[in-house]
Amino acid sequence: MAEINGTLYAICSTTGTVATATVITDKIYACKTASIKFDQAVEETSNKESGGWFDGMPGMKSCSLDFGGTWDEAGSATALTATEIIAHLIGGNAARKFAFVPTALGTTIPGWMGMGIFQNISLSADSEKPCTFSGSVKGIKAWAVFTA
Questions:
Q1: Strand ranges for 3-148 from DSSP E
Q2: pLDDT on residue 26
Q3: Which of 70, 135, 138, 140 is a plausible cystine mate for 121, CB 3.0–4.6 Å?
Q4: Sequence-distant (≥ 6) Cβ neighbours of residue 144 within 8 angstroms
């Protein structure tokens, strides 16, 4: 069995559209947790012929990313800090391209990409503990396997 180490994965984001993406380099800086969730609603189609059993059909699909980490503003030229994420949200929060990918691109480990919008960004400042941040991304439109 070949378990995959969670440290390999990062959430990356940059401007533009997925169609124009070649490589997404702007990862969220100082991230400790990252997750992606895909979902699909099941619309009820039960009727008198269903014999009392639930019957359904595929409905709307959705994707979301959740992240959190230690608030560190050192950053780098290609990192996206918590402060930059908040500034983006306050400044209009236009859709961006996102990827949930292994940080060592070119591996055979899968990743996913699509358009999304930041939401639910928060900072925590507990006494005598590192400041932390967390947030999420609501995926919009279709998401796909990361190919770049």
A1: 9-14, 31-44, 56-70, 96-102, 112-124, 132-145
A2: 82
A3: 135
A4: 18, 112, 113, 114
Overall number of domains in the chain: 1
Q: What is the pTM of this model?
A: 0.85
Q: Give the residue among 15, 24, 10 at the shortest CA–CA distance from 91.
A: 15
- Distance from C-alpha of 15 to C-alpha of 135, rounded to nearest angstrom: 18
Give the side-chain half-sphere CA count within 13 A for 2.
Answer: 2
Q: What are phi and psi of 23, to 5 degrees?
A: -140, 130
Closest Cα to residue 144, out of 88, 78, 79, 61? 61
Domain that holds residue 120: 6-40+58-145
Q: Residue 53: inside a domain, yes or no?
A: no
Express each pLDDT in 54-74 by its tens digit: 999 999 999 999 999 999 877
- Residue 110's domain is classified under what CATH number? 4.10.410
CA pair distance 76, 4, nearest whole angstrom? 26
Of the candidate ranges 14-18, 22-26, 70-74, 127-131, the one whose mean pLDDT is the lowest: 22-26
Q: Is residue 48 part of a domain?
A: no
